[in-house]
Write a structure and sequence with these properties.
Length: 425
């Protein structure tokens, strides 16, 4: 194998698909994830033995695969507890991370927080029940957080005699409802998580279905174009000014390239100040500055001495974002304490903290009917379109264009709790 081939192979192997499975209670989410792990041989043997033991103890004939995803870890993030369990598995073709969000009423906020980095969402539908209010809610939330790919998994096909008519009716219902949502592509797959049909193996009871199995689809869906590769965005995390004599002129701007790309000599603009310069060097080994290396983390130097600090954003002069003190956003309220419109909150956006006010609630979305309602405040799990005013300028793109520079969280100053997650319109 040539060096190029081995580099290419490494690159292919590094490809990672993040997905979430959304379903109402008892639709079979845990069974499906368990089946996926089991049939793709991703479960470690010791895990399987312990599940077999538990299933036997409970007097079950078959191994209960939902036990594989039980025991959600509570995640503590800025003071709120989010029940999202991350599960990792790999096949020779791809690596996967599943964010498993529980289906109870805290669901909305869990999904909004767990799904914001997902490439794909699986919406489970019980074949006997068809498209329910909850299925609509899941599809709406997936489109709200901008998940590029959606799989509608029509589960429990064994309970409707693997009927093609039932499957096609559900597909028609779902596509009629979802045509107004900004979803890019929807894949429909009939399956039985319990019997194992069309999850990893095709089985022989769904012969009329000619599409891919779930795993085949997950392994092959094109995710290269999911992220913004056009606009160079570099929020500055740290300004590096070594105090040694030989380097006292050095100024490096450390951070993560969140999107796009840059080359030596490219014209850059520092925002919000608007000052311009050119890239002098791109240093890819931040270790030498005692900083842990994370993917895409770099240190940039520029040709001129400009006043740049943490929270500023370097962009390519030819690819400018919006700079404003007021913007519209969709927010999901996460805190138990409702929104207080009179209160100043902290808006955390990229590497910046700004003081801001939710100056107006344009409308609240009833996530069961998707209708817009008037509202004076927001309670936990509610979603609304709001206007936000900030004291200083904020540099952003719309969330539809850039999931990093288009998203923010709202923090309550006194308690330091995260109270909302937002996506800029
Ligand atoms: N017949 C049949 N039963 C299934 C299938 N998938 C899941 N089930 C059963 O449906 C019930 C619920 O499955 P779970 O996987 O626990 O459902 P869930 O959606 O994860 O439910 P929660 O964890 O409570 O949110 C269990 O009794 C499963 O055995 C299927 O394809 N066919």
């Amino acid at each position: 194998m040539s060096v190029i081939d081995s580099i290419r192979l490494e690159h292919e192997q590094a490809k990672l698909l993040r997905f979430i499975a959304a379903g109402s209670v008892d639709d079979g989410k845990s069974t499906l994830i368990g089946r996926l792990l089991h049939d793709s041989k991703s479960i470690f043997e010791d895990q399987l033995t312990s599940i077999e033991r538990t299933s036997n103890k409970r007097g079950m004939e078959k191994v209960d695969l939902s036990l594989l995803t039980d025991g959600l870890q509570a995640e503590r993030e800025q003071g709120i507890t989010i029940d999202v369990a991350y599960r990792y598995f790999a096949t020779p073709k791809r690596k996967f991370i599943i964010a498993d969000t529980p289906g109870h009423e805290q669901y909305t906020r869990n999904m909004v927080t767990g799904a914001s980095t997902a490439n794909l969402a699986i919406v489970l539908i019980d074949a006997r029940k068809g498209v329910l209010t909850q299925s609509r809610r899941h599809a709406y939330l997936a489109s709200l957080v901008g998940i590029p790919h959606l799989v509608v998994a029509v589960n429990k096909m064994d309970l409707v005699e693997y009927s093609r008519d039932v499957f096609e009716r559900i597909c028609a219902d779902f596509s009629a409802f979802s045509k107004d949502l900004p979803l890019r592509g929807i894949e429909y797959i009939p399956l039985s998580a319990l019997a194992g049909d069309m999850v990893v193996e095709r089985g022989d009871r769904l012969d009329w279905y000619k599409g891919k199995t779930l795993l085949d689809f997950l392994e092959n869906v094109d995710i290269d174009h999911d992220w913004n590769t056009d606009d160079f965005r570099f929020p500055v995390q740290w300004v590096c000014r070594p105090q040694t004599e030989e380097m006292h002129d050095f100024r490096g701007y450390m951070g993560r390239v969140e999107s796009g790309s840059i080359q030596k000599g490219d014209a850059v603009t520092v925002l919000p100040s608007g000052l311009t310069s050119r890239i002098k060097e791109i240093l890819l080994h931040p270790d030498s500055f005692n900083e842990t290396s994370v993917p895409q983390s770099v240190t940039l130097t520029i040709e001129d001495h400009l006043d740049i600090s943490r929270g500023d954003m370097l962009v390519k002069t030819s690819e400018q974002p919006t700079v404003a003190k007021e913007f519209a956003a969709m927010v999901c309220w996460l805190a138990e304490q409702p929104l207080d419109p009179a209160r100043k909150y902290i808006i955390k956006h990229t590497t910046r903290m700004l003081k801001g006010l939710i100056s107006q609630i344009d409308y609240r979305v009833n996530i069961n009917t998707l209708e817009r309602e008037a509202a004076d405040t927001l309670a936990m799990n509610e979603i609304a379109r709001v206007s936000i005013k900030t004291q200083q300028f904020i540099v952003f793109d719309s969330y539809a264009r850039n999931r990093i520079t288009g998203s923010f969280i709202v923090i309550e100053e006194v308690t330091n709790n995260t109270v909302a997650a937002g996506m800029i319109c």
